[in-house]
Amino acid sequence: xxxxxxxxxxxxxxxxxxxxxxxxxxxxxxxxxxxxxxxxxxxxxxxxxxxxxxxxxxxxxxxxxxxxxxxxxxxxxxxxxxxxxxxxxxxxxxxxxxxxxxxxxxxxxxxxxxxxxxxxxxxxxxxxxxxxxxxxxxxxxxxxxxxxxxxxxxxxxxxxxxxxxxxxxxxxxxxxxxxxxxxxxxxxxxxxxxxxxxxxxxxxxxxxxxxxxxxxxxxxxxxxxxxxxxxxxxxxxxxxxxxxxxxxxxxxxxxxxxxxxxxxxxxxxxxxxxxxxxxxxxxxxxxxxxxxxxxxxxxxxxxxxxxxxxxxxxxxxxxxxxxxxxxxxxxxxxxxxxxxxxxxxxxxxxxxxxxxxxxxxxxxxxxxxxxxxxxxxxxxxxxxxxxxxxxxxxxxxxxxxxxxxxxxxxxxxxxxxxxxxxxxxxxxxxxxxxxxxxxxxxxxxx
Length: 446
Ligand SMILES: [Zn+2]
Known about the structure:
With about 450 residues, the protein is mainly alpha-helical. Helices cover about 70% and strands about 5% of the residues. It has 18 helices and 4 strands. The chain has helices at about 1-30, 45-50, 55-90, 90-105, 105-125, 125-140, 150-180, 185-210, 220-230, 270-275, 275-290, 295-330, 340-355, 355-375, 380-390, 400-405, 410-425, 430-435; strands at about 215, 240-245, 255, 265-270. Strands 1-2-4-3 form a 4-stranded mixed sheet. α15 packs antiparallel against α17. The longest helix is centred in the C-terminal third of the chain and has 35 residues, at about 295-330. The model is unreliable at about 5-40 (pLDDT under 50). The protein binds zinc ion (ZN).
């Protein structure tokens, strides 16, 4: 029975991999290296012209920031493992379990009390590293103007949210483990995925407003064009929201959120203040693409398959490691909450090893949203300008393998090149031919 389930999951995973692989090659296939120039316009030349607007210094800085991120991923992983090893090896974890057991005799409440200690302790211990990564480094690269007190306040809010959701998840998953000790990995992953979807679903209404203020975007012709674009693509909204991300970051962003027939279009104030109108339209066209193409559901499905496999790995590896070290660390079976740091460490090994796959799944969907956005918004130069702005913090032109491993969005070069290929193929349309790049130079503010 279990073997059958595992085989089915592996087959599903392979299908997912193959279909995402073919998505990727389809994306690669529609960007021929020597684009046929339509008349006087050459996509390669236009792409090079956009890239040339970035100074070598800006390019070096963006490369350094992004490549530094590769190392951060490694250190995040190593620090997580060291922390788990310290909690287990020095028997902090066993002591936290014993403390919870002294306070209550209910097993679910012991799990909750353990989880609360676990989240507070791990957050406090890793705070200096989090401060370097999220505060010091962001300021070094000019990505943030946020004050330290404000940043700490956001961290505290994040901890409260982690405490609520993390404790809920721990209680639910340990209840499953104790009820179904043999097949918990299957049902436990279903619980985890359910909670994840729940969190995504309530995020726009209940979580995002905890960190930022959302308000209706001021009336303008641009706002009317955004609403028109939404109506044209069947997105049920009659308002566009802006939020004050500039208090945390200088990065531009937007999203179209919502599930099951609801939608909300939100764009951050950096995008409104720094981007040209055609750039805003291009970005919103891309975000609407995520909504129309059901990327939230497809992403949840792909993630679901990977989480099930990850839980199966966790279950298998937990047994092996516990045979060897369980006695020393003070627990014997997976139903003992003192083993939580080991479960977390094993899952992080799995996620770390699959980073290129996770990135490729996301990057494929981002490329789809790009294509949708170009067709919907018809702003290839706006898309190129957006790619230039994003290149402030994302390496513009990585190697092919580097892009597969580390990029969760297509690189700036790829995005500009695809936009220019789209433009070359649409030059016979009046709106595209009539676009006057001289009056809308790239990267210019409104
Ligand atoms: Zn996107």
